[in-house]
Amino acid sequence: MSRRFVGAVAVGVALAATSGCTVSPDAVAGISVTAEGHLLGVMMVCGHHIDGATLYVDTDDVSKQVTVGSWTADRPLTPGLVAWTLDAPAADWTTTKSLAPLTAKTTYTLSGWTKDNSWSASSITFTPADRDRLTPGQVRYADISDNGDESAITVSLADFKAKACQKV
User: Fold this and answer.
1) Can you give the C-alpha Rg of the chain in angstroms?
2) Which residues are CB-contacts of 141 (< 8 A; sequence separation ≥ 6)?
3) What share of the chain is helix, strand, coil (3-state, %, to 5)?
4) Are the beta carbons of 60 and 12 closer than 8 angstroms?
5) CA–CA dist 134, 40 (Å, integer)
6) How far is CA 145 from CA 24, 148, 150, in A?
7) What's the mean pLDDT in 116-142?
8) pLDDT by residue (tens digit) across 45-91?
9) Of 53, 103, 124, 154, which has the maximum CB count within 10 A?
């Protein structure tokens, strides 16, 4: 019996050691725009909480990622939908790094996080051209197909709210 216990502990430790590089997603990040053309961060929190969001230049080399904006919610975001302006002050949010101007033909990623790294939000990657194609009431986010492939889609805010958490 003790060999089984020791073996089970060893397997558990090995799994924990090899899976510690990612934080489980518990929310879905997206972008939208206001009627005035302001860029919005949109987050559907699915079960636990999210504390903030960061927008950075997307690159394969993590050491070369440049943060272009960062926001911390005044209170943890609990399950439900939240949206806030990224390029102007937003109620209930503290801007920890003001949004730098977005550059044409540059790819950006918006992601959500928790202060203790317990949860994350699946991220959305976009370019300024992708943003420019959005109209108020639309959300662009990364959808995961049944076979695990990820692709950016644009849906109504109501569809985002209804479907975003189904595959998290």
Assistant:
1) 18
2) 28, 29, 30, 31, 42, 122, 124, 152, 153, 155, 160, 164
3) 20, 45, 35
4) no
5) 11
6) 18, 5, 6
7) 96
8) 999 999 999 999 988 887 888 999 999 999 999 999 999 999 988 99
9) 53
Burial of 44 (0-12, 13-18, 19+ CB in 10 A): buried
Rounded-to-integer distance, Cα 77 and Cα 15, Å: 30
Distance separating alpha carbons of residues 67 and 85, to the nearest angstrom: 17
- C-alpha 58, offset from chain centre: 13
Q: What is the mean pLDDT of the chain?
A: 87
* CA nearest neighbour of 22 among 58, 52, 57, 62: 62
CA distance 137 to 109: 20
Q: What's the predicted TM-score (pTM) here?
A: 0.83
Candidates 87, 101, 94, 88; CA nearest to 115 is: 94
